[in-house]
Amino acid sequence: MIQYLLQKIQKNSPINSTAGRTKAGVLAGILGLLSNSILFGSKLTIGFLSGSVSIMADAINSLSDTASSVLTLVGFHISAKPADREHPYGHERFEYISGLFVSIIVTYVGFQFLDSSFQKILHPQNLSLSPIIFIVLILSIAIKIWQGAMYRTIGKSIQSNTLNATAQDSLNDVYTTMAVLISAGVEWGTGWRIDGYVGFIIAVYILYSGIQMIKGFVDDLLGSRPTAEEIEKMKQRLSSNTSILGYHDLLIHSYGPSKRFASVHIEVDESWDLNYAHTIIDTIEKEFKETLGVDLVCHLDPVALHDRNYTRLSLILKEILAKIDGNLRMHDFRIEHATEPKILQFDLAVPAKPRYSDEELKQLIQSNLQQQVGKYTLDITFDHNYLL
């Protein structure tokens, strides 16, 4: 059924377009809203009838999922709005804001049921159990399995991390409801009143899920690290380009699930004609947009390939750096001839966990350089880039 509905969307709007992505996201929100509403109503009813705090906790968990579905609908609607004067990068980050509200609600509910379950442990009561309770719980597990598959299918089709995470949350709910079912079954068969303990475990799980969700959405809003796959695709594109000498300072910025901007420094032969260099980087930028959906901005770094002294000193410095730490990388190398002693300028990319401080590195490089080629003044810009 889901594939059929996606194909209907595809006929009117390409699924990878903004309109197609929005329609698919709204579809997921509506289906999630309907199924979660049914689950919440049925679980809450049997929770009240039986007096089971664990079933009511599971019902409130479904209520938070219902609120999540509503916010998914709102999030996809607002995030689809085009860029405007106040929001030049679009509105896609609203999806993260709506998710943050849901995670706060989930966390609050977790605290409330933690207290209720604790009271039930201190003052246990017998449950009013009947076959209908087990039937409803088993049906809710089946609905959640279907719901998780639905979210994952649509999330994969539009490459939505939010829907993929929601799919995983639905599967987690399967385990939660199974725990409630086991609790009811144990009391039905043995008379052991473990409902409060199971409710306590579920409440802890809800709390943990809420806190993890808050962290994830806060990271998205602050600007989290891109996925390793995304970084690798960009690096492969740049590394495979035989027209350029190299690249560095690749930075990636996210303004929503499908809004990616990046900047990079491209090393080229300084003897190139300016128009030719512009054509090369313009081609790279277009390729990124067409194949990866990334708006790339390239900065040109000319390299003096035909200057023998430049080449000699560059190689010596690279050997010195390799000797100090094989993870050090140099770029933007320049020689300032107007001063005496001459100044060697370059940027030094330092690994995330360096062996030495910036000042220690400068002293080591200076000492090794003076031993090999004489006295030069070093002007080093230390680049602590945690992306690569």
Automatic annotation (TrEMBL):
<dbReference type="GO" id="GO:0016020">
    <property type="term" value="C:membrane"/>
</dbReference>
<keyword id="KW-0813">Transport</keyword>
<protein>
    <submittedName>
        <fullName>Cation diffusion facilitator family transporter</fullName>
    </submittedName>
</protein>
<feature type="transmembrane region" description="Helical">
    <location>
        <begin position="126"/>
        <end position="146"/>
    </location>
</feature>
<feature type="domain" description="Cation efflux protein transmembrane">
    <location>
        <begin position="30"/>
        <end position="222"/>
    </location>
</feature>
<dbReference type="InterPro" id="IPR050291">
    <property type="entry name" value="CDF_Transporter"/>
</dbReference>
<dbReference type="InterPro" id="IPR002524">
    <property type="entry name" value="Cation_efflux"/>
</dbReference>
<dbReference type="InterPro" id="IPR036837">
    <property type="entry name" value="Cation_efflux_CTD_sf"/>
</dbReference>
<keyword id="KW-1133">Transmembrane helix</keyword>
<dbReference type="InterPro" id="IPR027470">
    <property type="entry name" value="Cation_efflux_CTD"/>
</dbReference>
<keyword id="KW-0472">Membrane</keyword>
<dbReference type="InterPro" id="IPR058533">
    <property type="entry name" value="Cation_efflux_TM"/>
</dbReference>
<dbReference type="Pfam" id="PF16916">
    <property type="entry name" value="ZT_dimer"/>
</dbReference>
<comment type="similarity">
    <text>Belongs to the cation diffusion facilitator (CDF) transporter (TC 2.A.4) family.</text>
</comment>
<feature type="domain" description="Cation efflux protein cytoplasmic">
    <location>
        <begin position="226"/>
        <end position="302"/>
    </location>
</feature>
<dbReference type="InterPro" id="IPR027469">
    <property type="entry name" value="Cation_efflux_TMD_sf"/>
</dbReference>
<dbReference type="GO" id="GO:0008324">
    <property type="term" value="F:monoatomic cation transmembrane transporter activity"/>
</dbReference>
<feature type="transmembrane region" description="Helical">
    <location>
        <begin position="94"/>
        <end position="114"/>
    </location>
</feature>
<keyword id="KW-0812">Transmembrane</keyword>
<dbReference type="Pfam" id="PF01545">
    <property type="entry name" value="Cation_efflux"/>
</dbReference>
